[in-house]
Amino acid sequence: MSDTRTAAPAPTAAPAGGAEPMLAVRGVKTFYGNIMALKGVDVDVHRGEIVTLIGSNGAGKSTLMMTIFGQPRAREGQIVYDGRDITKMPTHEIAHLKIAQSPEGRRIFPRMTVFENLQMGASVDGFGHFDEDLLKVFDLFPRLKERINQRGGTLSGGEQQMLAIGRALMSRPRLLMLDEPSLGLAPLIVKQIFDAIRELNRAEGLTVFLVEQNAFHALKLAHRGYVLVNGLVTMTGAGRELLERPEVRAAYLEGGKH
Amino acid sequence: MDVFIQQLINGLTLGSIYGLIAIGYTMVFGIIGMVNFAHGDVFMVSSFIALICFLLVTTVLGITSIFLALAIVLVVAMFFTSLTNWAIERVAYRPLRGSFRLAPMISAIGMSIFLANFVQVSQGPRNKPVPPMVTDVIVLMDNNGYQVTLAWKQVIIMAVTAVLLMGFWYLVQKTSLGRAQRAVEQDRKMAALLGINVDHTISLTFVIGAALAAVAGVMYLMYYGVAHFADGFVPGVKAFTAAVLGGIGSLPGAVLGGLLIGLIEVFWSAYFSIEYKDVAAFSILAITLIFMPQGLLGRPEVEKV
């Protein structure tokens, strides 16, 4: 797109990034009825990277996350994962490629217990590592262990957020997609979650695609970032570099536009 | 007192049958928000499958043990009824998913008419009798000539229902299939995001509902000794009433509602007027819908988000 300005190549990017990205979103257009929510978006996520997508409310961030899963389907453009075109693949098959999402609104199963919600997360992994992964998640979020037999619908917003992330991790994803993981959480817990993401990325090489309104934390954490405005990527570059840009600071960090 | 106990036994027997059918209504409603008007006719079809199978088993195979014959009939009827319902969902409801809300219900009414007419044409419009299968009776009380009896077939109906409901409960609550089923019911999109094949899960719901309706069909045939092409409608609507009374979407509610409707119908017949027993059952439907639309064990519409 004409107004896309690319910052200088990211120096810290992609520890293991090969030539071909793990996830490539190419010219994707998504519609809700007649309204075009994504107007031709290009995003790359390389193996081992943390990539963040920032933007204000209604920019289309969550739409992009869901479009990658085919909910809704992209009307134009292409989504390639691991060299396979997944643009028209059924949603559940995309999940079996080990892409996990903690979606907007958390979408906890309200009448299932915390334990059952985590079991649901493990369904694509075939329960081979269930106990081991459960311990890891409880390690990350001890609160969930206390609530293990409580129904999802009765948890507080923050607890649901932890459960949504834990559920995504239970599938042993190769690509973890997090939609606003900081939403509704106390600052201390946000820090915990971001530390956990960094640690998973460093220790296990987990690739993370992160959508955030909390641009400061997200850009500090990410190797690379994209700025989405009204369904278009307007800026891209290394995370810390975007953090320095006056336009980003004005719009997303210093209480500018919203 | 003796009349009361006798009617209690009869009511629980009938209620078991309604409860088994009601589960099919409530599960389908829970997962795709549709009232499956053809479900009563699926139940009717299952009693014909049972009838044909019973005659084949006893005459062609020459099996004389009635319990073995019943067991075979039960399995065969469950299998073919499930297959029928699977096919119905595939051709009549799945293509309409994503269409407007009433579309699949209208399709279900069409399917209901189709099934009843198909059976009428292929099996004839008259009552089809089977020889009495289980005739033994236990006399519980004898009060100056009024005998309180418990027929063996009533014992069979209640026992088979209880065992199957426990198995069914285990399937839904403890297995990954049941968990997937509940997940799709609660949030279809999220279930897909976690790798659950939503279409398969919905098919599975129709298969399970039909299997339980088939059990009801076999029991109905054994209890009354006849099958008739129009016998899907009234029991079907009563089972639907049971599902509404228990709280549509709630599985324990469907069973509870079934038992209550069976008891209400039987007690009304015994103490008031047998001609108005259907009026009594359907008045319950109206009263529930007006004063307690969420039913006895249903959840209120509003949910914490």
From TrEMBL, chain A:
Ranges of residues in domain ABC transporter: 23-255
Assigned keywords, A-Z: Amino-acid transport, ATP-binding, Nucleotide-binding, Transport
Protein name: Branched-chain amino acid transport system ATP-binding protein
Native source species: Ancylobacter tetraedralis
MF annotations from Gene Ontology: ATP binding; ATP hydrolysis activity; branched-chain amino acid transmembrane transporter activity
BP GO annotations: L-amino acid transport
Annotated family: Belongs to the ABC transporter superfamily.
InterPro entries recorded: AAA+_ATPase (IPR003593), ABC_branched_ATPase_LivF/BraG (IPR030660), ABC_transporter-like_ATP-bd (IPR003439), ABC_transporter-like_CS (IPR017871), BCAA_Transport_ATP-bd_LivF (IPR052156), P-loop_NTPase (IPR027417)
Phylogenetic placement of the source organism: Bacteria, Pseudomonadati, Pseudomonadota, Alphaproteobacteria, Hyphomicrobiales
TrEMBL record, chain B:
Record GO terms (molecular function): L-isoleucine transmembrane transporter activity; L-leucine transmembrane transporter activity; L-phenylalanine transmembrane transporter activity; L-valine transmembrane transporter activity
Sequence intervals crossing the membrane: 12-35, 42-61, 67-88, 100-119, 151-172, 193-223, 243-267, 279-297
Entry superkingdom: Bacteria
Amino-acid biosynthesis keyword on record: no
InterPro entries the UniProt entry points to: ABC_transp_permease, BCAA_transport_permease
Keyword Transmembrane: yes
Subcellular location: Cell membrane
Signal peptide: none
Topological relation to the membrane, as annotated: Multi-pass membrane protein
Record-level GO cellular component terms: plasma membrane
Alphabetic keyword roster: Amino-acid transport, Cell inner membrane, Cell membrane, Membrane, Transmembrane, Transmembrane helix, Transport
GO biological process, one term: D-alanine transmembrane transport
Family per record: Belongs to the binding-protein-dependent transport system permease family. LivHM subfamily.
Protein's UniProt name: Branched-chain amino acid transport system permease protein
